[in-house]
Design the sequence.
């Protein structure tokens, strides 16, 4: 088993007033050659957007972009004609493919929105752009890892063009479980949203991240109430 630990306070930070963002991996003005990606996981941004503010229209291509709101609402509009609002308990995916323009905006004037923006390199280039969102609160069972993303359209959650699986879990204190990897060639990046956990005797606190590879399974124990995101991804770019 191999691991890489990224503590919460080691992340890049950019505060633009309307946007307060923490970067696990190199992004924009935060450039760290040792923090470029974890396998095909390229971006993990922990964003807070002020009321009535947001990202203007901007382009993407050949990237799988996932947004997971943690608090508040996020309004999305894109060049495919979609205009949607996602909120806590939802997940959104956008396959940028051959190219897309979109904007993200906090539609509320009385509270911020907090969300994770995640980029994954696709295993297919220049696909037709697509958009999807689902409510994952309806499929979430306490004290287990609930699948919210996979490579298969027929599975629970959303799907992307990559051999990747995301799971989200809310755990009570002393919950203990084992996560078997879907693909032995993959690794898992674990991101703690709330609380404290043990991963194979490594303590992780709120907003810490731990990458693990060269293993077939991972053991998790919640030291107290915790919310955790598991991102299983290929370790090599196609």
Sequence:
């Amino acid at each position: 088993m191999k691991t890489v630990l990224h503590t919460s306070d080691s992340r890049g930070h950019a505060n633009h007033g309307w946007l307060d963002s923490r970067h696990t991996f190199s992004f924009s003005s935060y450039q760290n050659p040792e923090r470029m990606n974890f396998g095909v996981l390229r971006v993990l941004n922990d964003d807070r957007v002020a009321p009535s503010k947001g990202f203007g229209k901007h382009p993407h291509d050949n990237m799988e972009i996932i947004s997971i709101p943690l608090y508040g609402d996020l309004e999305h509009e894109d060049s495919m004609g979609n205009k949607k609002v996602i909120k806590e308990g939802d997940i959104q995916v956008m396959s940028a493919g051959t190219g897309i323009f979109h904007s993200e905006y906090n539609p509320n004037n009385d509270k911020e929105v907090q969300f994770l923006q995640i980029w994954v390199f696709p295993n297919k280039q220049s696909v037709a752009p697509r958009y999807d969102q689902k409510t994952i609160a309806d499929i979430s069972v306490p004290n287990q890892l609930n699948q919210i993303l996979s490579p298969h359209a027929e599975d629970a959650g959303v799907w992307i063009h990559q051999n990747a699986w995301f799971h989200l879990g809310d755990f009570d204190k002393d919950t203990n479980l084992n996560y078997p990897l879907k693909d032995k060639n993959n690794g898992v990046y674990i991101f703690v949203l709330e609380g404290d956990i043990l991963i194979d005797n490594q303590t992780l606190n709120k907003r810490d991240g731990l990458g693990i590879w060269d293993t077939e399974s991972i053991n998790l124990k919640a030291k107290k109430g915790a919310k955790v995101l598991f991102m299983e991804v290929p370790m090599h770019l196609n």
User: Anything to note?
Assistant: The chain has no helices and 22 strands. The domain at 138-234 is CATH 2.60.120.10 (Jelly Rolls). The two ends are 23 Å apart (CA to CA). The chain has a mean pLDDT of 96.
